[in-house]
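Dear colleagues,

For the upcoming journal club I promised to circulate an example of a predicted protein-ligand complex. I picked one with zinc ion because it came up in last month's discussion. The inputs are reproduced below in full, followed by the predicted structure.
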Amino acid sequence: MKSIMSVCGPVVTDDLGFCQCHEHLAVSKGVSCEKNPVLLMEDEEKSLQEALRLKEHGGGTVVDAQPGGCNRMEEALQRISKASHIHIIASTGFHKLCFYPRNHWVSEKTLEELYQIFSHELSEGMYSSIDDGFHPRDTKIRAGIVKMALDKEGLTPVYRKLFLAGAYAARDAEVPMMIHIEKGSDPIALFRFLRENGFRAEHMIFCHMDRAVLDLSVHRKLLEEGVFLEYDTIGRFQYHSDERELEIFRYMMDGGYEERLLFSLDTTRARLKSYTPDGIGIDYLLTDFVPKMLAFGFTKEQIHKISHDNFIRVYEEGYCQT
Ligand SMILES: [Zn+2]
């Protein structure tokens, strides 16, 4: 594969630059921010300022992890990308069901209907006007990845339907599945479910494991199977220090998994400097964490793998079907 779909069209993989593969740059008002106010990032000008700061410090590509129907701002993302020259890859798929109004289409539609919606967003264009009710308007701006979310309640019938719809859409569009792992959920059970249904480990990115699953042997089990792990408990000192994060990276790399690791910040309003001046900023990986990695003894080549090569690898390896 030579290119990945961004909100401004295909990007040649060599041009992606420094990749942050799970961020939130713009999120409009809705149930998610009623549950948690720091999830509201609705000011397009502020979001643009954040993207410009990232560009200034050497950023290249950001995956916006907000799926359709859940306050995604697909058209704003395209304008921000054009103005900042940061490549933005948008998400289709689904988030935790607690982030949607009751009886939302995401839980009501059939597996086939969900598959059609996700596939359309990947191959034709993302829909706007699908947060409250389903009044789709095709923006012709394509999604480039399938976001899915495993919550504490696990693989209930509605989540099974959603995971299968998302996984089929990802497989058919040849893009990765990027999966939110909630604290208290069972990522191994999810992995087995997807595998039993014929989906390849090399197609999957499990996110947030560094704060959601403290038992590192679970991480290694998934890595052994070929799953990619995206770590983002970086600059999040209520969970652990950056030094602890570096130790986790070192432990996984010593196990031989440096081609399976990705990083990002999973930003919220509280961490974006343009919204919260004393936040870490979306450029924190470049300004702070990468220098800490170098000081800790990681090589530039290893950092290049985590920030670039491995993101391309998950598209390329997921691409070969069995
Ligand atoms: Zn997220």
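Two points we might discuss: The radius of gyration is 18 Å. The chain is about 40% helix and 15% strand.

See you all on Thursday,
B. R.
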